[in-house]
Amino acid sequence: MTHGQPDSALTLRQRAEEKLKTDGDVTSKTLSSEETCQVIHELQVHQIELEIQNEELHRTQHDLEAAKSRYFDLYDLAPVAYLTLSKHGLILEANITAATLFGSTRKELLKKPVTNFILPEDQSVYYLYRKLVIEGKKTQGCELRMIRADGSSFWAYKYATSMQGGEYLVTLTDITKLKQTEEELRRAKIAAEAATVAKSEFLANMSHEIRTPMNAIIGVIQLLEMGDLSQEHREDLCMAKKAGLDLVRLINDILELSKIEAHKIDLEISRFDLRNEIADTIKLLSLQAREKGLELTYSIDPDVPTLLKGDAGRLRQIIINLVGNAIKFTPVGSVALQIRKDAEDTDTVTIRFLVHDSGIGIAADEQGHIFEPFTQADSSTIRKYGGTGLGLTISKRFAELMGGHIGVQSIEGKGSSFWFTVMMDKQPG
Ligand SMILES: Nc1ncnc2c1ncn2[C@@H]1O[C@H](COP(=O)(O)OP(=O)(O)O)[C@@H](O)[C@H]1O
Ligand SMILES: [Mg+2]
Predict the structure, then answer these.
(1) What CATH topology corresponds to 270-426?
(2) What pLDDT digit, counting tens, does each position of 56-70 carry?
(3) For residue 347, what is the enclosing H or E element?
(4) Which of 294, 319, 325 to mutate to test the pocket of ligand 1 (most atoms within 8 A of CB)?
């Protein structure tokens, strides 16, 4: 008998007879009738036991076959293309989905090297990932182009899992559509980015060009103001000057924003003392606050390091924007600037600036938009308070350039608390 194969009924009988001979035949001895009954009983029980065992054996065999056929059905009918490859990359098995994917029959795939179905340019990718699977990184996925029976190619995601005996199981998914969409998106992104930069560059150039004659116009108005004028003409000139200054402010904001968008802004880093910087900035703003009868205060927590290295000019601009807004949108009460430390390590410190006001506040559904360019909380703002809706956008970009964030908490009718953070280097020593 070869190992593992069941005996035929005849050889089984012969083997049993031989064994009986070597072990000694019980029936050759003379038995009493009682002993004979006992032996017959034992034999009957034994026979029934064997029958039961036989039945169970049949059932197990049947279950095994059912499981095997279920496995083949799963393999064959799975919506994923499966290939089983030999150690050397020969296709040993392929399911129906794989055959359909390649537009061929299963027979045409079997026993062929899988590389026959991979585009020559992408074979290096296949070999690289096969090496990884062999080197013990059990499962590996890669993207490569494969060839159909009709010679056309498609993008496939190939996922290989090594199995016992050096074979491996490969699943293939057609990702051609995904690749096309990816490529279209990439092209669209490049085009959109180029368009944004071009637009910002145009804006930057335009606003620069407008600013020069505007400054000349304001200069001439200032010269005229020095002359002998009637009251009426003086008032007219004053209005013209105010409009001119507003325009220059708007142009400056647009110039600043477009420079940021065109990635033409570099931080100007210098050593400065935060304490002096804040004192000067608040002094600048206190005139506006006093004119409106508002209290303007500031505080710096004692643990904030104040000898810093960073872009003091841009930091000042954010503070002017936020405190300026607070003053503008607060009819009565107070505005307070608070400076705290958020985090610190040996070289850097993250500082949090908070601007609280007791002003008109911002409706909850508007709070998300006000950091976008040219956006104001509601359309009546521009009529009542003027402005361009660029201050917060510029402040947000500056805070982000300095490694921080910006945000607001506000209750309509009660007041607002704007905050921003920046990360700055500490002066050594
Ligand atoms: N402190 C504040 N209180 C109430 N509303 C504010 C405050 N700060 C900003 N806002 C709202 O956010 C909008 C955008 O602000 P900003 O970008 O500085 O533009 P601008 O000041 O030119 O209107 C303002 O128009 C206003 O509606
Ligand atoms: Mg503003």
Answers:
(1) Heat Shock Protein 90 (3.30.565)
(2) 999 999 999 999 888
(3) none
(4) 325
